Amino acid sequence: MKCMDLKTFERENVFGLGKENSDYARFFVGNSYLNPLTVPGRCPVFLANVTFAPGCRNNWHIHHAKDGGGQLLICTAGEGWYQEAGKAAVSLTPGMVITIPAGVKHWHGAKRDSWFAHIAVEVPGKETSNQWLEAVSDEEYAQLHG
Predict the structure, then answer these.
(1) How far is CA 129 from the centre of its chain?
(2) Strand 116-122 vs strand 71-78: parallel, antiparallel, or unpaired?
(3) What is the strand order of the sheet 19-20 is part of?
(4) Left (φ > 0), alpha (ψ -120 to 50) or beta: where does 145 sit?
(5) What are the residues whose beta carbons fall under 8 Å from the beta carbon of 125, sequence distance 6 or more?
């Protein structure tokens, strides 16, 4: 369900807004928030609730791994977009799970008229890394409808 009102959205966003995502702000267009759900080093899988303000999206990026790796997105509140390079964007709603294999160039974020949250899961693997690429341009983003 689309949601522009932050107070209403926060009732749906059961894993919490978290703190402003300032450490990664340079890889996002717009405002995002990060609420870690596991502690690196104490759990072999890192999970975080990532919240995107309306119109916010992350840059194109690739999760690399020699073996395993990749990312899972578990959509929890609001509405957003996911897109792999060369493919049409997918409309995201609560309850959807997106599986992103290592090596796939992609981006994800909120629709222009809705807050959006997902749990991001870093899939364990060998020699994993994340490569941040170019921003999703305003022109590319404006072409998305839904």
Answers:
(1) 16
(2) antiparallel
(3) 19-20, 32-36, 46-52, 116-122, 71-78, 97-100
(4) beta
(5) 65, 66, 67, 68, 69, 70, 102
In angstroms, the CA 7 to CA 4 distance is: 9
Topology of domain 6-142, CATH: Jelly Rolls (2.60.120)
CA gap 89, 80 in Å, rounded? 10
The pTM for the full model equals: 0.95
**Domain edges within the chain:** 6-142
DSSP per-residue string spanning 82-117: EEETTS--EEE-TT-EEEE-TT--EEEEE-TTS-EE
Show pLDDT as tens, one digit a residue, over the chain (146 residues).
899 899 999 999 999 999 999 999 999 999 999 999 999 889 989 999 999 999 999 999 999 999 999 999 999 999 999 999 999 999 999 999 999 999 999 999 999 999 999 999 999 999 999 999 999 999 999 999 87
